[in-house]
Amino acid sequence: MFLLGVVLFVQLPEFPSRYLFALFPCLLLAAWRYVILRLLAWMLAGFLWAFFCADAILSRQLAPEIEGVNLALTGRVVSLPLVRRDMTRFELEALRLHDEAGRAWPVPGKVRLSWYQSARDGAVDGLSDGMGNSMDELAPGQVWRLKVRLKRPYGFMNPGGFDYEGWLFRQRIRATGYVLKDADNALLEQRQGEYLQRLRFALRARLGEVLGEAPNAALLLPLIIGERGGLSKEQWRVLTATGTNHLMAISGLHIGFIALLAFGLARFVWPLGGRTSLLLASPYAAIVSALVCATIYAALAGFAIPTQRALAMLSVFLGLRLIHRQTGATHIIALALLAVLLLDPFAVLAPGFWLSFTAFAVILYGMNARLNACGLWWRWGRVQLLVTLGLVPMLIFWFGQLPLLSLPANIIAVPWVSIFTVPLALLGTLILTISEPVGAFVLQLALKSIDIIWCVLAQLAGLEFAVMPVQQASYFALLLACMGAALLLMPAGLPGRYLGLVLLLPVVFPATQKPGREALHLSVLDVGQGLAVVLRTQDHVLLYDTGARYSERFNAGSAVIAPYLRHLGIKEIDKLIISHGDNDHIGGLHGLSETISINSIATSVPEKFDAPAPEHCNASGSWEWNGVIFAILHPAGTTLRGNNASCVLQVTVGSRKLLLTGDIERRAERRLVERYGEELAADILLVPHHGSRTSSSERFLDAVQPDYAIFAAGYRNRFGFPKQDIIQRYKERNIRRLQTAASGAIEFRLGPSGLSFTEYRKQHRRFWHTVMQPTQ
């Protein structure tokens, strides 16, 4: 009931009034007076506890007035800096914040900053260590004064996408930004608290020296200090495809194994001390040793949220044994659940919370009160089978895919990593502080064990059927699937047990919502400063542009478009149109093509593609899909270049039309008006060039006369799109204006029944999402 109260709170779209806190004394009084109200009281207690914690987080906000302006920020580094080739990312606990006029502003708490190498070179005046050496390397516990630009938490919002703002909320990060190049950037103090993070930082540096540039060295760091920032894109792909990403971290599994190992060693060694057994009985010493070792191991991960969950569950279990309290398994789960929620009620927003507790419950449910509970298969293989089957509904619901080879991969990898890699890694790290050559040798053995298991996992991940993409199912389908899994996990011989497979079908093969004939679904995705539009007919899918490539690790194709298509159950794109060659329109292509097959491509820049070159879009191209007519109106020749050569697509759905214009400017707009005149009229217009002053000429708007204008522009983008005078031009014509930064993904449905649209950010808003002002 406490969990239910927390879950209900995190569904709220708006933050409630603080007057609700007045319910707490009434709640206590009612629960004490009336026993029948105690379950309701626990639910309200969970609701109010989440309310209190959320209020503490959201009370420290960045003032909207200082977004994007130069600020002087003084703060303490509170995380392990993540060092990349061209930038360093770190978290800073803000201590003081001033604008350029010297005015002080309320500090937003924890801030996530990126410091690009171009802004660091020759621009840092650090402290000296007393021997003439500069101490300007970022490290936990340092206090810096930096010139920065900040913005409130903001992330793309699309169906099937990652809720970045929710992740920032869980991490208590209330502003993001970057460091500017400035001579006043300086290290003010070398060490101020953060003892645990400093220890982890020193360990990471030492391990980096010992392990060197070994390809799989990045896989060893997560097992020792819980640092996964160094994993490559390919390593993440292999781990995800085989369902083993939980192994390469200080997870509950590893904490439990270390506790078990410490318990067994203490139980054996403690009596050998003679008098020690008189001071503390061996069973008690073993329990204390297990708790201490598990706590130390969790501390190496910086007490990250997953380790907090595991430690809370282990502490409840061993604590009850320590006080000789006999209790049922379900009671242990409930107490551990309560402990985790008291530590962090917003753990419910993380998939790991549900996966870990579900796995624990599935193991107890499938292993207890069974006959023939012996043998290696029962004790190990059956556990993996239970967890694999029991987590199917959760994996599909949270990730939209099912790793089909998870069972064999985990049966092989879990014992190998737990028995060989983790003990060797921890032993080598411990010995490293005593004897570097011996410690380095043991760590190399741990690295060899990683290399061996990685060969197996990479082979499994390379199989075509390793991962099964699944359309995201409804809550009702999830409930049915959980009931089905529970039926399948019941004891053998139960009549009708395999009917559970039928209940799994709605979540594995959910019903798809396709447009009817002569109908179209249009989705302008929120990809920041860029463009990606998905058009769906009854049997076909067209993608217009692929958004931008922001870095080597992040692009709109793999981060936004592919998850959106998987969310809809779409495995291939019938036609891709790349309007022109700018990064914000073509940058996501490579990331998209890695996961989604593309049948044909048309573009105005075929020279940017490897052989075979795609077809050149030109004004003579037209086709029909399911009663919907597609026609390319521009370019009509080869005289135009750049933005003005963008492919312009007109789509006709019955009596309604929409016009996708890419980045055309006035010159191309003039040619379109001269060639087509009134035929340009459209109900929906994708605003040319994101609302720049070089486009949306008055003559063009008078010819199109749209009812809706969509501005595909990023939040606080560096170009300042859409421009205010362009917005005014649309406003004067009473055209309804929508912008992806404020609306998230914008989805239109056109067909015989009419026209309707939804704005994803508004429809799925939660209280932690930043409210964006719509285009005025």
Structural commentary:
By secondary structure, this protein is of the alpha/beta class. 43% of the residues lie in helices and 16% in strands. It has an eight-stranded mixed β-sheet with strand order 17-16-14-12-11-10-25-26. A seven-stranded mixed β-sheet has the order 18-19-20-21-22-23-24. It has a five-stranded mixed β-barrel with strand order 1-3-4-6-5. Mean pLDDT is 88; it is low at 125-135.
- How many strands appear in the DSSP assignment? 26
In what range is the share of β-strand residues?
Answer: 15-25%
First-last Cα distance: 44 Å
Number of helices: 28
Helix content: 40-55%
Report the biggest beta sheet as strand number plus sense, adding barrel if it closes. 8 strands, mixed
Shape: globular
Instruction: Give the neighbour order of strands across the main sheet.
Output: 17-16-14-12-11-10-25-26
The radius of gyration over CA amounts to 29 Å
Q: pLDDT below 50 for ≥5 consecutive residues: which ranges?
A: 125-135
Structural class: alpha/beta
* Mean of all residue-level pLDDT scores: 88
Summarize the structure.
The chain has 776 residues and is α/β, with parallel strands linked by helices. The protein has 28 helices and 26 strands.
Please specify the SSE layout and strand pairing:
Elements: H1 2-9, H2 23-33, H3 38-58, E1 71-77, E2 82-83, E3 87-99, E4 110-116, H4 117-120, E5 143-151, H5 164-170, E6 173-179, E7 186-189, H6 195-211, H7 217-225, H8 233-241, H9 252-269, H10 276-279, H11 282-300, H12 305-322, H13 329-343, H14 351-367, H15 376-390, H16 392-399, E8 401-403, H17 406-432, H18 436-461, E9 467-469, H19 475-488, H20 500-508, E10 520-524, E11 533-536, E12 541-544, H21 556-567, E13 572-573, E14 575-578, H22 583-586, H23 589-593, E15 597-598, E16 601-603, E17 615-616, E18 622-625, E19 628-634, E20 648-653, E21 656-660, H24 666-676, E22 684-686, H25 698-704, E23 708-711, H26 724-732, E24 736-739, H27 740-743, E25 746-751, E26 754-759, H28 760-763
Parallel strand pairs: 4-6, 12-14, 13-15, 14-16, 16-17, 21-22, 22-23, 23-24
Antiparallel strand pairs: 1-3, 1-5, 2-3, 3-4, 5-6, 5-7, 8-9, 10-11, 10-25, 11-12, 18-19, 19-20, 20-21, 25-26
Helix pairs in contact: 1-3, 2-3, 8-18, 9-11, 9-12, 11-12, 12-13, 13-14, 14-15, 15-17, 16-19, 17-18, 19-20
